[in-house]
Amino acid sequence: ACAARASEITFELPDNAKQCFYEEIAQGTKCTLEFQVITGGHYDVDCRLEDPDGIVLYKEMKKQYDSFTFTASRNGTYKFCFSNEFSTFTHKTVYFDFQVGEDPPLFPSENRVTALTQMESACVSIHEALKSVIDYQTHFRLREAQGRSRAEDLNTRVAYWSIGEAIILLVVSIGQVFLLKSFFSDKRTTTTRVGS
Amino acid sequence: LALYFHIGEREEKCIIEDIPSDTLVVGNYKVQRWDIHKHDFLESAPGLGMFVTVTSPSGEVLLSKLYGPQGTFSFTSYLSGEHIICFQSNSTRFAVIAGSKLRIHLDIRVGEHFLDESAIQAKDKVNEVNVRLEHLIEQIHHVTKEQDYERKREEKFRKTSEETNSNILWWAIVQTLILISVGIWQIKSLRDFFISKKLV
Q1: What is the mean pLDDT of residues B26-36?
Q2: pTM to 2 decimals?
Q3: What residues form the membrane-spanning segments (chain B) (predicted)?
Q4: Which residues of B touch A130 (CB under 8 A)?
Q5: Which ipTM value was assigned to this complex?
Q6: Which of B76, B134, B145, B194 has its Cα between 20 and 30 A from that of B47?
């Protein structure tokens, strides 16, 4: 039984860029790829997963978050790519978690004479619970980072647009009056009252 | 080593780790260079090294060292926040040969405390459970630290949202006041103007 490996990486994907990751997987291993876009633009990215023969196992365009589980049908190097090629000027921050294989049991059942003791089964259930706590925590952290990024974007946008609007309002109103005045100033010579 | 990716020879690749304070981060890497003649990545290229730079959220550089083609680096975070780990090869080849690239294998572990497997192999039952329990306690401490950090971030998030809310309200009031006062000024100004021009 091979040990499970999990790699999670958060990286910045510049606009028009594509970043690929490779991993060698043995046949029959159950793997999970999970990714989420944390900051940038519409918070979406293209993702594509290929097996050693080049067959596309998973392909989604403009996804914000997804999770994909598959079992490796053959030995070899699997490749998954994230693409921001559809975006012209926004950088995206992408998080992904690639889990290869399942965790080996805490208390392996070879060489065992008796069933798990209470202590051991308590350990196993705490371990499982903690794993799911850490998993939820990661999800929550990413969602919160995404929400905070949107809130900060919104805040800056509101500030700039409001200031811009106020300035435009002032400039246009004052400009209107002077423009109107200038119309009447030109006609001064022709509108002097005759016979007053 | 597990996951790998490719970069250009002179390119710098960075990854981001958003971690609470007092967290140990350990990274294993291996770098290989593409050989044009053999059309494969060399197992070890002589003189090839890797600059590893770690920047803390305040911009301070925590770690900046040149390692060999394969190595382990680690650092402990003082502040909570986004730490940026950057990799750049020490390749000094100015003429970038077409098709030359580097393969970087990477494995980064955050806050994990490694189980001492040899202690677990000990036949003593009590000792084994003891070790597992200690590992679980460490994991719980890490979860708690993450939660504390999460609380601070959520507070910042809430403050930003409330600031946006009050900004919208305040600017709407300011704009309405500008609108009204400029409107009044416009009418007054035009009226005075027409009176002075003897048109009214």
Answers
A1: 82
A2: 0.80
A3: 168-187
A4: 136, 139-140, 143
A5: 0.78
A6: B76
